[in-house]
Amino acid sequence: MIDRISLLLVIIGALNWGSVALFQLDLVAYLFGGSDAMISRVVYALVALGGIWCISLLFREPSARQIQDH
Questions:
Q1: 54/7 Cα distance (integer angstroms)
Q2: What residue ranges are annotated as transmembrane (predicted)?
Q3: What is the tally of structural domains in the chain?
């Protein structure tokens, strides 16, 4: 479950960075009152933690269930 939540947070971060690159619009800051707003900073921190967690996905061996599914 933590893997899925982390992946969702990383996707949110990627979409936000994409909107910054393409439209010069920081969606998190826009939605939550600026990049200095506390809630924006919480979202940024959660995205960062999700990204850090997803690093572990690179080094894990596939579980037996995943092998059977493929």
A1: 7
A2: 7-32, 38-59
A3: 1
DSSP 70: -
Q: Is residue 31 part of a domain?
A: yes
User: Does residue 44 fall inside a structural domain?
Assistant: yes
pTM beyond 0.85: the answer is no
Output phi, psi for 26, to 5 deg: -85, 100
Q: Is residue 21 part of a domain?
A: yes
Structure tokens, 38: 């506390």
Q: How far is CA 60 from CA 7, 22, 51, 53, 57, in A?
A: 15, 34, 15, 12, 5
Mind listing the pLDDT tens digit for each residue in 12-32? 999 999 999 999 999 999 999
